[in-house]
Amino acid sequence: MFFVLILVTVLLSLVLTVRAIVMPTDGEVEQIVPKYIEIQLGDNYVLKECEYTNCFSGIEMSYIGINEETKERKEVIEECITFYEMEEVISKDKTKKRLESKLDSDEKKE
């Protein structure tokens, strides 16, 4: 019985350690989620409502964006995505904007 108790304690400790390493802080999630949602909505939609939960499997989010001109809604409900995937989307968007900026400046030179 004592061995089982020690084993359970060690396993629980290991799980909590892995969770602390893998899972982003609430502050990190709070910073990245709005950026990610803006990219997903694109230029035509404005974010109106969102909520998210930082959980072990990733970040579960729901949001609604509205196209101001057409009043069309874009809804995403209970999408689960990892912090790493959100970082990747944001990084790719930054690269795209940088390349587009270079392209625009090259066109103005001509």
Describe this structure in words.
This protein has 110 residues and is an alpha+beta fold. Helix content is 58%, strand content 25%. It is built from three helices and three strands, in the order ααβββα. It has helices spanning 2-22, 26-41, 83-109; strands at residues 46-55, 58-66, 73-81. β1 (46-55) and β2 form a beta hairpin. α2 (26-41) crosses α3.
The percent range for helix content is 55-70%
Distance between the termini: 80 Å
Structural class: alpha+beta
Strand % is: 25-35%
**Total count of strands:** 3
The number of distinct helices, counting runs of at least 4 residues, comes to 3
Please summarize the sheet with the most strands: 3 strands, antiparallel
- List low-confidence stretches: 16-20
- Mean pLDDT, to the nearest integer, reads 85
Strand order of the largest sheet: 1-2-3
Keywords:
single chain, 110 residues, alpha+beta
Give a quick summary of the entry.
The protein is an alpha+beta fold. It has helices at 2-22, 26-41, 83-109; strands at 46-55, 58-66, 73-81. A 3-stranded antiparallel beta sheet has the order 1-2-3, covered by helices on one side.
Describe how the helices and strands are arranged:
Blueprint: H1 2-22, H2 26-41, E1 46-55, E2 58-66, E3 73-81, H3 83-109
Antiparallel strand pairs: 1-2, 2-3
Helix pairs in contact: 2-3
